[in-house]
Every structure is written in C-alpha cells, then in structure tokens.
Design goal:
It holds the Pfam family DUF6427. By secondary structure, the chain is mainly alpha-helical. The chain has helices at residues 2-5, 11-22, 25-29, 42-45, 58-82, 92-100, 112-129, 137-153, 161-171, 176-199, 203-208, 231-248, 254-272, 289-302, 306-325. It has one domain (2-133, 225-325).
Length: 326
Amino acid sequence: MINQFRNLNPVNLLILAAYAIFMRLAIFLNLPDQLNFEFLEPYTKFFIQIPLTNYFSPAGNIFFATVLTFIQAILFNRIINNHGLLAKPSYLPALLYITGSSLFLQFLILSPALICNFLLIWIMDKFLKIGKTPNAMMTMFDVGMIIAFGTLIYFPFIVLLIMLWLSLLLYRSFNWREWIAGFIGFLTIFFFVAVFYYWNDNIAQFYKIWRPLVNKFPSTLQINFSDYLVLIPVGLIMILASLQLRENFFRSFISTRKAFQMLFFMFIIAIISFYTKPDFRVYHFLLSVPPGAVLLAYYFSNAKKRWFYESLFAVLVLCIQYFLFV
C-alpha cells in the first residue's frame, strides 16, 4: 500500500477514494439513528441562518463527510508536494490524511472542525509561502481574516492567532507592520460582526463571545484510555518520524526545517485549543490531523525497509478498523 502511494500515478486517486470508503465501513454498517450537524457557533447564527441540522440523513451526513475529507486530502497532498516537504512528490500525504481523519467515529461525521480543516489547510499553504515573499504583510492580513472566518464556524479556531507570530518568528526578521497585519485582518471581520450586534441592540452579547478565552486550562481530564488505544501505533510512527527527521534535519533545506517546526507548533496549538470549548467533542482533534499527517507521511516517504513500513501501516489500519467496530 505505502509503496503504491510513493508515486504520483493517477490510478492512486481511485484507490484513495476506495480507501476513504473502506475506512468508514464501520459507521456505514452501523448507522446512528440521528446525526445533527451544527455548522456555526451560536453567536454567528444570530446574523447568519443556515438550517442544516435536519437536512441530512445519517447516511447523507457520513457520505458528505467522506467527500469533504477526500477533497481535503487532495488539496493537502498538492500543497505538501508543491512545497517539497517530502523526499519526492507522492500521494502519501493524502493517504495519511485520510488515515488520520478516520481514527475515531466522531471524525467520520460532518462537524465544524471538519469544515475548518479547509481553512487550516489554506493557512498552512500561506505560512509555507511567507519565507519566499519579500513582503508578508498582505499574506498575514489574509491569514488573520481566514482565522476570523474559522472562528465564526468553530470558536477554538481563534487560538490559531498565535501561529501568526510564531510563523513570523520562524520565517522572517522583525517587521512591526507584518506583526500587526494579521491581527488587523482578524479584527476587520469581527468589526462588522460588532456593528451588526450594535444595530440590533445586542452589543452585550457580542462581548460574551470572548469569555471562553479566559477559561482555565483543565488541571485534570477525565479520559477513558481504552477509547484512545488506537493512538498507540500513531504515536509509534510519530516517534519514528521524529527520529528520521532529527537524522536528516541538518541535511534538509532551511525552508524544510522551518516548515516542520511551524507544523509542530500548529499541531500542538490545534490540540490544546480544546480548552476554549468546555463541552468540546472528540471531533475537535480533527484540527490536528493536517500538521500531524505531514509527519506521518514524512516517515513513510523516507523509510527504507519495505517489510517493516508496510507491516506498520497495516497494523495502524487494522487497529483503526478494530476500534471503530468495537
């Protein structure tokens, strides 16, 4: 399987589509009685009404989630190949993206985090470009606006504002205009939101939008570890990928080193942003799939012993299927 996806054969697109369906067999064969799709945050529904909750049957919900995941995988694959983050262009990023997007049952349904992954992939592309442009001010402004749009869909997306400044630290020398451009882009969108609230004599509700930002990070988490055993093979592959990356780190292009550092920070921020949503669902961690999938793809792109990496991937897929079914 891995060897097949190490090249850009167009046939791999068909195999990838079949693989995306295969990874969702568990939920297709055991359809829930009802699946609600809440597309926007409550503060956004105040001025945008999109009644999608009852538009999809459970089968339709999962089908469209599969289609969106497949489209994201293709876009993600193109971006990673365009920026040369792997040993050579391949369909491995798409393969690992779909694999990572199938880890848990809640990953397989329509969710705000799934929609936001389109924006996250777009942001990744823009961040990977800022080291190659003479002036990153407009790029950062655009990213700020994208993060604002994502925040209208799913509030924890706002934490990605931190990535504006982390990326500038990694890629560029200090320029105060670039440092504030992204934040201005973000404020531009929410300025119009504030105006709408004001016109409707509801400005007090606008202030309440920001309350989750002061939530305390939980000191204890109630976790059923048996639900997350599927992460063991994922963690093993990430450790192997980190060792491989460390070995090749100083032999890589400077842009590649910075890219993986940026993706590491994005991965961590996507995970910890759950604290802004006290009633968060497992699907929140879909936001960590794009940066995480790059690291997984890096290992399989550089691994040497075919019997080992093919077996490791097979174990990962079998573990995912087992825990999805049980």
